[in-house]
Amino acid sequence: MSEIDSRAEEAFDRRDSAPGEEFITEHEPAGGLAGYLLGFGLAILLTIASFLAAQTHLIYQPAVISALVVLAIAQMGVHLVFFLHITTGSDNTNNILALAFGVLIVALVVIGSVWIMAHLNLNMASMSAHQAGTMP
């Protein structure tokens, strides 16, 4: 067995890997330096497009918020694929579950905070004139 064959077997031997450990190859779209540069270029283009959409009249003004939401979702997709390496591969199951759990926790915190703030006035006790500072 040659040295090259033993290195090839070591590269594909995943018994010593931790759960969720990724093996990024050059054949993936986000693999290697070229993948990082492509992701960086796409992120820069999406950022410039967001600034252009917000500060110019290229987009119909009532649709600017929709355009910014679409560009933000595209920006998240670029970051997930090119920098966090979240793909549809079978070895990314743990990463996708961790991401989904994180999104769930953030959604619960944001929705709960908005709900509490929206109903805060209803649950407050009414103030007397002395507490409100309206007494002479």
Would you give an account of this structure?
This protein has 136 residues and is mainly alpha-helical. The protein has 2 domains: 25-87; 89-124. It has 5 helices and no strands. The protein has helices spanning 3-12, 32-55, 64-83, 93-123, 129-132. Helix 2 runs antiparallel to helix 3. The longest helix has 31 residues, at 93-123. The radius of gyration is 25 Å and the shape is flat. The protein starts with a helix and ends with a helix. The mean pLDDT is 82.
Distance between the termini: 97 Å
Structural domains: how many: 2
Gross morphology is flat
How many beta-strand segments? 0
Order of helices and strands: HHHHH
Mean pLDDT: 82
Question: Could you tell me the radius of gyration in angstroms?
Answer: 25 Å
Measured by DSSP, the beta-strand proportion falls in under 5%
Question: What's the arrangement of secondary structure elements?
Answer:
Elements: H1 3-12, H2 32-55, H3 64-83, H4 93-123, H5 129-132
In short:
The protein is an all-alpha fold and 136 residues long.
Tags for this entry?
65% helix; mainly alpha; 136 residues; single chain
